[in-house]
Amino acid sequence: MNLTKSLKNYFEELSSNSPTPGGGNVAALCGVLASSLGEMVCNLTIGKKKYQSFEPEAKELLTKFEAIKKEFLLLAERDNEAFDRVMDAFKLPKETDAGKAFRQSAIEHATFEAALVPEEVIIKCNDLIPLLDIIAVKGNQNSVSDAGVAMSLASAAAEGAFLNVVINCSSLSDKKAAQEFMKKSETIYHQVKDKTAGLISQIIKRMTSK
Question: Is the backbone peptide bond immediately before 21 cis, with ω within 30 degrees of 0?
Fold first, then answer.
């Protein structure tokens, strides 16, 4: 993801007829936003007398959120690059049998690589959820709803990423390998969805029981 561009530029590119940035990039961006909200809750906790005993852990969490945010940003950029490689493979010459075979192999390889990026987004979301849970429970309770929004965004990131895993796997010629890969991603995806649904429900109960 190109951080030198303004949000206005990004939204213009996103809404244009250009295939990148697309859904995979947006899924990773949801991960960036979720991590950033985690950082915000940490920063709203650190320095508060009420949470003084938790402050060392909050500082550690802040560092972890920062690191995960950078990884999501990298994945957003890699998603664009992966799609571009798929498009480049489709443009390869196909006038001869050898050319056709090479082109098909290149498409298959690039498509599989394009499925790997959203899978990493799902895995990263699964890593993020436990950290958000800690800051939601122990951090500044005036910002517990922000932690809940972060969980919701992480869930959306995982779901969006899984949709991209599915569409790439459905294009692979090796259906057995595609099915195995998709199944592995689906397992992690459901873990994220189940965890976030349960944790958001807990947050809502805590807020409404005050």
Answer: yes
Q: Return the CA Rg of the chain.
A: 20
CA dihedral sign, ordered 183, 195, 72, 158: positive
> Quick one: pLDDT at residue 6?
87
If one counts the domains in the chain, the total is: 1
Helix (H, G, I), strand (E, B) or coil at 170: coil
Q: Examine residue 14 and state whether it is found in any structural domain, yes or no.
A: no
Instruction: Return d(Cα 137, Cα 152) in angstroms, integer.
Output: 16
**For 86-131, what is each residue's pLDDT tens digit?**
999 999 999 999 999 999 999 999 999 999 999 999 999 999 999 9
Residues of the chain with pLDDT under 50: none
At position 135, the amino acid (one-letter code) is I
Judge whether 179 lies within some domain.
yes
Angle subtended by helix axes 144-169 and 175-208, to nearest 10: 170
Q: Whole-angstrom Cα distance, residue 168 to residue 90?
A: 14
